[in-house]
Structure formats: C-alpha cells, structure tokens
Amino acid sequence: MSHEALKFDKIAGPLIEKAKQDGAETMWDRDVAMKSRCGFGDKGICCKICNMGPCRLSPVEGKGAQRGICGATADTIVARNFARMVAAGSSAHSDHARSLLHTLHMTSPDGDYQIKDEAKLLSLAKEYEVETEGRDIYDIAHEVAEIGLMEFGKPFGTQRFIKRATEGRQKLWKELGVEPRAIDREVVSIMHSTHIGCASDMESIYALTVKSALSNGWGGSMIGTDVSDIIFGTPTARQSEANLGCLEENMVNILVHGHEPGLSEMIVFASQDPEIVQLAKDNGAEGINLVGMCCTGNEVLMKHGVRLAGTFYQQELAVITGALEAVVVDVQCIFPALATLSECYHTKFIATSPKAKMEGARYIEFDEERALEIAKEIVTEAILNYKNRDRNKVLIPQEKNKSTVGFSINTIVGGLDKVVNSNVDQLGTVKPLADCIMAGVLRGAAGVVGCNNPKVAHDNSHLTIIKEMIKNDVIVVVTGCAAQAAAKAGLLQYEAKELAGRGLKEVCERVGIPPVLHMGSCVDNTRILRLVTEVAKYLGVDTPVLPVVGAAPEWMSEKAVSIGTYFVSSGVDVFLGTVPPVTGSARFTDYLTNGLEDVYGAKFTVNEDPVQLAQAMLDRIEEKRTRLGI
Ligand code: BF8
C-alpha cells in the first residue's frame, strides 16, 4: 500500500503494512477509495447554501452553467465559500479562547487551576483597565476573564487588542472599515451575508472575511495565548523529544490529542500523581508515559516538555503501533476514524468534549469543576487497560529526535540580548533581532506553520522550506504541525545550526539556540504576529515593510485559512503549499494573489512545489530588503 504522499516518511511504510495485516483501515486506504476529489468543490464553484441547488458552475469560462439558479457568479460563490471557511476557522480558535476565559474565571488558590504567570495577568489587567492596586490576584483574574468574555459578544466597539498593532495597521483597518468588532458578531455577519440573496460583491465579502480573521488573530487566538500563559505559565526553553519512538515498550502509553490545554494539563498532573504511578506499577508497567499529538501535543510540550508522538497525519499510525493504552481527545483535528481503528487494538479512544462527541468513542465528559478528578479517572482507565495489550501486535518505531522548545516572545527576546553588547536600557527589547535583520546578519524571518495534507508528501514541504530558509540566513519560527515536523527531523536542536548560513549560525552560537524556534500551537501564531509587530514598531515602520514572510506549506484546515487571512491583513505575505478552493474564480484568485497587495501591502502566493515556494519566499525577503535600502 504505497502512496506518493508517504515516500518521504521512513516509519509510515512498516506501520501501514502492519495495519493491513491487522485488518485496520487508514487515511491512505480512504484516499485511494476516494479516487479523485470533487472538481467543483476543488475550485470552489459548488454552491449549496440553499436548496434550489446544489449549483455547480462550469469551470470553463463561457461554456456551460456560468451562474447559479439565483444568478450568483463564480466570483460570488467562490468568495462566499472562502468566507465561510474563515468563519469556521475563526470560530474554532476563538471558542478555544472562550473555554480558557471560563477556566480563568474559575481559578482559585486552592482549586485545580491557579494563576501561574501573575506578571502577565497584571499586564493584561492594565491593558483592560482593571484596578489592580491592593486587590487579590484571583479577583483581578476573574474581572479580566469577564472583560475577555465580553470581547465575544459586546454590542459596541472593536477588539481591544487591535491597539497592539502598528499605528499604520490600525489606521488602515479603520479606513477600510475592517476593524474587527465582537468575535461572535463577525462570524454571524459572514453567515448572514453569505445566506441566499445577500452579498454578491466579491470584494465586500472579502472585507467581511478580513474582519472575522482579524477578530481571530487580534482577538480569539491572541486571548487564547495570553490566558493560557496566565493559567499554565509562559513557556521557557526546555528539552524534549519527538516522534513515535517516544512510545515505550513497558509503560502505560497515553496519547493526548486535540487542542485545549485545560484537559491535557490535568492529564499531565494526574499521570504524575504518586498513587496513580503506583497503580501503573501494580498493574505490571514500569510507569506512565504521556505523549502528545497535534496542538495539544504542542501545549504540553511547550509548558512541560511532555514528549511529542507526532503530527496530524500520524494520529492513526500511533494507534497502529498497538502500544497505546488510551488516546484522549478534546476538540479539532481528530479523525473520527480513530474510533473504528482503536477497535482493531486494545486502545481506548476517549472523547471528552461535548463539542466533539465522537461516534464509537468511550465518552468521559471533562468538567473543569472536577478537572483533576476526571483526569485521574481517565488515566486510571488507561492503566487498567495495560493488561489487555497484545504484545504480538506491538510495533514501536525507533525514530525520535531531540528538540529544544518553549520559545515564547520573552524567551526569544531574553536570549537575543546575548547577541549584541546592548546597553542595559535596551535589554529585553526586540532591538537585537531588529539589528541583526537590518545589518543583514539575518536576511529576514519566516514563520512556517500549519498542518499535514495527503495532497502533498507529508512533512516534505515543511522541511524543504525550513531548510532553504535557514541555509539562506532566514531565522525560522514554527507552530502547529509544522513545528512538529521540524522537531521530528531534528531541526529544533542546537546542532541544526550546521544547516544554517553563516549569519544565522553565528546568532545560534552566540545565543545557544537552534535556527528554528518552536513558538507553540496554532493559536500561538499570535506570538509570531506580536513579534513581527514589535520589530516594526521598534523600527518605526509598518509590517509590510519588513523582510518577514509566513508559510503554510501543507495546510488543510479552515483554521489555517483564517490564520492566513489575518496575517495578510496584518501586512505579512503568506505562502501556501496546497491550493485553496478558489481557482474557479479567476477574479477572486487574482484578488488574493495580486489585488490584496494594493490594499494590505501583502498577498497570498500559492505553489505546490516546495522548492519553488521557498525560492518565492526568499525572493520576497530580498525584494523587501531592497525596498528598505538595506
Ligand atoms: O491547529 S496545524 S493539523 S493540529 S489545524 Fe490541526 Fe493543522 Fe495540526 Fe492544531 Ni493547526
């Protein structure tokens, strides 16, 4: 069962062969069964927003159906479909933040959730104009949470965090009328305006899309990152390991997978509880081995150094090892197929969120009011399942790599202080980073983020692009599954500096960092947004001027479309390695890949060839340097 998309992966082949012998179906079987994708959907020209259709427009201009029954053109239909993708992506990220705000609201000194980063809370309180003088830290936290929750539904005003953007961005968004209002309102606006018989003007639909994306980037996701740091601690640099080789032969293996840190944090604590560890030993195991996957994996990796089992596309492979006692999931990026797949093994597939009940899963609802107690219940189920492991069905790959993770903005800025003999006043600022870029020691910076997608060879695009960047003295920051691809390939180790150009290598050596910095989960793309913004502010310019680019080489989710849109709207060029479903409208495609530059100073570039995409990124960086006169 070979597949083009797997050629790059050393460990997938044997595990997929094993799946075949075990009678287990994988995404690659389904990919083959699918034969080909729907050509209309692929181009974004299938409209099913009302029951007169679905209307499928002809992909050939001037031939066949050029309009839907209501008269909607390809431009309208493509723009509406794109907008709805962004609305869904913004919803997923922002709802994640809403959960965290509720958790912040229930923090208490003797509860399961406490305040870990008081300084960050106080700083946010100041920004929210919350009185802090002489008040209990938990009273402050609760008031901050209430104000944060109002960002979702307030009837008037705009997102508070847009004040964090450069003055240039704030002015532009105001002039264009795209300042994001309440987060939920922007999603509702899209759903309303794309209802049958509403907006048909492509550019106005895109403006609504921008508002929702900005309400995610400068709203939901940014709130998510800040609140997560406040409750669980702002990440600092730490060592860990990544890949399926992190599973252990003689331990109870538990995989946490999904996104929201409220659950996974408690599973970390539960699995370290001495009584629970003893229970594992009493049941014949040497202990408990907790590993992470997808963005939950990033959360527990960044904050606790919990080892990473793998990326999005490895979720089935992890079960096929036959060595997992439990897969514990909450929301987003979880294959429904895991339920059936787990039945081929002894693995318990445990769903926990009312937002993502999974057919065929064992359901243990997670309730923050009894967080640790429920986490212990889940870990206990996994332990008691250890005896059911069939040793004949176990195949744990050897591959794993060391990585250094935990690069919050504080970690990066603190580390880079070592690069120059800064005067003390300039310590703790982005000056060293800005100086390195201006001097050409670093040619620029690239964020490489996003998913895996069977349309392209898994991890290959991420790694090709990352390696091209660092070889050319472009420092790389990574999040999401791109970060995990880098971790598995050893690019998050200090030793990866040997793959870097002279300037970047010198920076790595002076600071003691790898050339690729793991900044967290997909919600944490806002760390990248803020870092870029701080450099722009320091240099007194707007973001589009900077030699900085973003790439989602293997993106697949609606969240990625929202992220890409908020980055472009924030003045950062975005390079995509899989084609979004927009090519059915030449006008809309041209708008995304050219027209946006006149409006936002940044645009999308799409190329499925990672070498060409990397070259386009480097060219853009050099073009920006030339324009800056550096
Ligand atoms: O939010 S990178 S596959 S895990 S969507 Fe999902 Fe994509 Fe991975 Fe996290 Ni992001």
UniProtKB/TrEMBL annotation:
Residues the record lists as binding [4Fe-4S] cluster 1: 38, 46
Q: What EC number(s) is this enzyme filed under? A: 1.2.7.4
| InterPro entries attached to this UniProt entry | CO_DH_a-bundle, CODH, HCP/CODH, Prismane-like_a/b-sand, Prismane-like_sf
Q: What cofactors does this protein use?
A: [4Fe-4S] cluster
Task: State one molecular function term (GO).
Answer: 4 iron, 4 sulfur cluster binding
Question: What catalytic activity does the UniProt entry give for this protein?
Answer: CO + 2 oxidized [2Fe-2S]-[ferredoxin] + H2O = 2 reduced [2Fe-2S]-[ferredoxin] + CO2 + 2 H(+)
Residue numbers binding [4Fe-4S] cluster 2: 47, 50, 55, 70
Superkingdom of this entry's organism? Answer: Bacteria
| Keyword Repressor attached | no
NCBIfam families tied to this protein = CO_DH_cata
Q: What is this protein called?
A: Carbon monoxide dehydrogenase
